[in-house]
């Protein structure tokens, strides 16, 4: 496992084995669901991976996650398994430098402190958020909506959703909007363009390593 880091596996029909098919699916999932983190424009992404290949075994999925977590870490991107939900393995992918940048804001730090989360240190914050998401996926707690901050949502939108569950939002797109909808629409459009660009590059043969390094350049 890990071949898809250096070689584009965008054509799963060319896979010769179940393991190759699963790896192709996994990399495609990473590009599709965490493309904005890969592109360096979003601090973190939380998503699930459920292989379509019926012959795939649990140990293959575990080995794929472990292999790519190691390769991602070498490029300054972290990946952790959060648990299972509905047959999907839930993952968080994040860029420490972008999470650390969020902590430069006094208002963000104040929000995190009020939510009983670490306000200094990207690793400490992500560990605490991961613990809350793990508890959620194990059905021991409600979903921690404060994670929206590291998913790249504006603070006012995160606080607004926590306060009323989205009932008072004035617009919606990738998240519920409580601020200026025109600013939000422009942001949604930019994120959509970046996402399409990353997916197009991958479909044209750019491997994961190069996608990650383009963002770091």
UniProtKB/TrEMBL annotation:
<dbReference type="Pfam" id="PF12672">
    <property type="entry name" value="DUF3793"/>
</dbReference>
<dbReference type="InterPro" id="IPR024523">
    <property type="entry name" value="DUF3793"/>
</dbReference>
<protein>
    <submittedName>
        <fullName>DUF3793 family protein</fullName>
    </submittedName>
</protein>
